[in-house]
Amino acid sequence: MIAERKRLSSGLTVTSKVFVRSRNGGATKIVREHYLRNDIPCYSKACTKCHQLLQADAKGDLAKMIFSESPLALKGSSNGHYVVVDTNILLHAIDLVENINCFYDVIIPQTALEEVRNRSLPIYHRVRGLVKSEDKRFAVVHNEFNEAAYVVREKGELINDRNDRAIRKLCTWYDTHINRDNSKTKIDIVFVCNDRDNRKKASASGIKAYSLAEYIDLLPNGEELRDSVPQDDQDFKADKTETMFPEYYSNARLMGGIRNGTLYQGIMHISSYNVLEGQVTVPAFKKPLLVIGTKNLNRSFNADSVVVELLPKDKWREPSSTIVDESTIGENDNPEEDNDDASTNDGPTSLISDNERKMLANEAIRSTAASAEKKLLPTAKVVGIVRRSWRYYVGQIAPTSVSAEHGHSSKSCFVILMDPLLPKIRIQTRKAHELLGQRIVVAVDTWPSNSKYPQGHFVRTLGEIESAEAETEALLLEHDVEYRPFSKSVLDCLPSEGDNWVVPEKLDGDEQLKKRVDLRDKLVCSIDPPGCVDIDDALHAKPLSNGNYEVGVHIADVTHFVKPGTALDNEGAARGTSVYLVDKRIDMLPMLLGTNLCSIKPYVERFAFSVIWELDEDANIVDVRFMKSIIKSREAFSYEKAQIRIDDATQTDELTNSMRILLKLSKKLKQQRIDAGALNLASPEVKVHMDSETSDPGEVEIKKLLETNSLVEEFMLLANISVARKIYDAYPQTAMLRRHAPPPATNFEALNDMLNVRKPGMSVSLESSKSLADSLDRCEDPKDPYFNTLLRIMATRCMMAAEYFSSGSYGYPEFRHYGLAVDIYTHFTSPIRRYCDVVAHRQLAGAIGYENLDLSHRDKSKMEMIVKNINRRHRNAQFAGRASIEYYVGQVMRNNESEQEGYVIKCFNNGLVVIVPKFGVEGLIKLEVLGDVNSADFDESKYELTFNDHNGKKRTIGVFDKVQVEVKSVKDEVTGKRKAQLSLK
């Protein structure tokens, strides 16, 4: 590569990079030009030169002068200062950077911002939000186009080293530009960077460089901000120098091992019932790899992308039969100390608790039995971390880790996280006593090999434990749900008419609007849950003269308002989905669209995207048409009101008759799906009723499904299938689709074994979805009507999760949706609350020639990014919704102890797991609560636990047994979460 620089007659400087690439014996010369300017402003009001430059420019904007001419002075200095931050400060300390009492007049190098964009899009958007804030005075300085600040990458120089040098050059340019040439007053340029080598080089160049901790200490209010400074490995000092955990392999060894098949990469899944055990699924093995024990888990978090090495076959084990939770591990540990045991020949043991030793010994004994051979799983150890799943975590300070002398000096303490699968975090804080009893947010900074626990820092407090506001915000943070208000740039994309927007009277003036089909004469109505305000679907039906039926599904035309590439579209894509909690809804799109302009309200005209079929008497498709339309809904029904209207024989109007047609055809569509092998699975769904005045939770009930629920579901499914076929035909490489992979047979091994032992003659078959559905239908217990539902709940947990994908990622046979028993499927019917549907709408509009499809939905790599995000957001929204129900069910039961019917779904050697259908809750009953611990006998082959209860009575309880339990709500002293506590009667 040869770098050249020359000045053009226009005053611009162009840097050329010349590459010579050899192909098939020939040489190709490639020239890449990079243009530089000498008129990029510094944005400082103290700079006379840039002020005059903008005044002289006819297009100059003096509002660009952002930085104060009298900025804040640091301790020990009489001069004000501007701050230059590097990439890692933005990535790892964004909360501190955003803090209203910290970081003013901040120079963000273009180099750093581009790195942030590549590594974390959410943080990038937060930085862009800071730049738009007038109070904090942040500016992105385009050093990559500034002739005086640009640096060329030197031969053999790493890109990170070049970028560090570019930021140092920018600091030097600012100091020269402002203080030596143009400034009214002396202003210090301060470089904040946590890289010691980079700081050392900066200081050698005359730049004032500080670590983040040093910089915070120099601020006038630094004392109150010190707790929020991220720690690094150097901040942590263990009492001893020995290594507690095995060191990770080098990157070269990891990559080489993965390539040659001696190492395997996958996602770590920590067991829900044993935090000392994890599983990693890899393509090379039919069964997951089992990782047992703290040493083998080797500092990995749940959901980390890890590299593992297989252990010898004589160390292969069964999954654990012991319940171990985080609260029982190191409960007496001192946060100021780490190593308390000596190492042995087998390696370090200081991190191993008595509970872990007992568990490992017990599992080794179990796995030596010949009868256990078929249940053995290959075991492995973690030797590297590819990508951390670290995020902001919510928890509470462990009271036992706060000493009486914990004063205003910085002391270590433990934070117990709300997620029970994660280890406690050690933080340093001066405010430990103040934070007791509070929900707090922490970030993980590092986990050195010589520390038993990860190191982190305090971010902020959410409020008192158990307050509705704190608990709701906590669950949103825990599940990474974006809940902050929409920004001004997003709201600026909305129609200027606001609430007064109406369908234009004349459509002739717009080429696209002329293509809309007027369907305002159709008897359209919507059927939704009670109180629904974001109505995104409606239906109509009418008989045709040939004996067939016209049926229409009409979906809110969200893409009329949400145009590709806008701030509104980017925000919708980032959020991915709306999130429904018990007491609120977190919208994907601003409320003006979701509950007003796009919502198919009754009696008003709305733009829609319509799918209209001609169906015969047996609900077979004769013809299908797709069109952008204008509709006017005649009525908005709840499921119950629609059912009452259909069932009322005195109602004979056209609208009611059309709903009866829909119901009749929906039953035939459902039967067609069942005949094809569609699954009817189950989950313990409940509804929490809220008091309309006080917003307090009232009662819990199991959701009741009516025929009208199925009516709507069947036609939404039919629309999704029809649209999927259309967009795949038009865009075979990038169609937005949804698939559901068939479950591996190994997923059902344990369930089938339980059935074989506990319910002889029953089993589930996996040859196809049809055989699975039929076998579930056969598993009936005449003595217990609920058993079949229980089995379907357990079968659901053995299934694979459905996922969004771009059609070019798989072959057509892999498109199949196993649960629905269809060959192709998408989501089209809820664009108000799902971004997948927005993309499907745009692709369908392109497929029917309504408008050209945006490049972002025709590009495979961009579609891959979209589906990856919406899969994650969809999953997180589901978990957040369940967590909200769990919290409010706990509140309902708070003063309402009751005896309920429960069913055992798991047995361990030290406890039982019981599900209570009435409340949809699942609870662990530990052996010490059941009775005498020393009397217990766990028969794994029979899935039974025998023990003496507290009255001395011998009891034997196994999987599928119906039991009476006392249910009450208790506050978990470890996590602070209120949960249902179960005890046997």
TrEMBL record:
Residues 344-353 have a biased composition (Polar residues). The keyword rRNA processing applies. It is found in: Cytoplasm; Nucleus, Nucleolus. Residues 333-343 have a biased composition (Acidic residues). The keyword Zinc does not apply. Residues 890-985 form the S1 motif domain. One of its GO terms (biological process) is nuclear mRNA surveillance of mRNA 3'-end processing. Its cofactor is Mg(2+). GO terms for cellular component: cytoplasmic exosome (RNase complex); nuclear exosome (RNase complex); nucleolus. PROSITE patterns: RIBONUCLEASE_II, S1. InterPro entries: Dis3_CSD2 (IPR041505), NA-bd_OB-fold (IPR012340), PIN-like_dom_sf (IPR029060), PIN_dom (IPR002716), RNase_II/R (IPR001900), RNase_II/R_CS (IPR022966), RNR_Ribonuclease (IPR050180), Rrp44_CSD1 (IPR033771). Keywords: Cytoplasm, Endonuclease, Exonuclease, Exosome, Hydrolase, Nuclease, Nucleus, RNA-binding, rRNA processing. One of its GO terms (molecular function) is endonuclease activity. SUPFAM superfamilies: Nucleic acid-binding proteins, PIN domain-like. It holds the Pfam family Rrp44_S1. Residues 321-355 are annotated as: Disordered. Belongs to the RNR ribonuclease family. This is Ribosomal RNA-processing protein 44. The lineage of its organism: Eukaryota, Fungi, Dikarya, Ascomycota, Saccharomycotina. The gene is DIS3.
